[in-house]
Fold this protein.
Amino acid sequence: MSKLVFFAALISLLFLPIAPASGFKTGGQDCSKCHQLSKDEARTLLKDSIPNLTVLKVSEGPVKGFWEVYLATGGRKMIIYVDFLKKHFLSGGLISIADRRNLTQERLTELNRVDVSRIPLEDALIMGDPMAKIRIVAFDDPD
């Protein structure tokens, strides 16, 4: 009788659908709903590893499971990546293998872009055509 029950249980297990077990559903969900990292929390996490740290911005990174932390230290601005578990950080260029793009450098360029139209030019010395399509703005210290 016990052999019959054992084989019946074994056969019934064979017909159950097989599905991967996971702690989190990843089907198109917004990870920032469950995982959050504030600027203050990022500063607290990184202050022992990066001296004179100022966190400028925190956003979701280009790789799932990582935060992008835009920061300034020692007169330099840089991007590091902090994992959602807040146990590790990566420093350096993140390169896309498929199209060989440096995603970190592209993001730094975007974040550091200066809107030239907002530069006051009332006291500027204009050389050449003031209505030219391309303008070059040079700064100089007269002292």
Summary: Helices lie at 2-14, 39-46, 103-111.
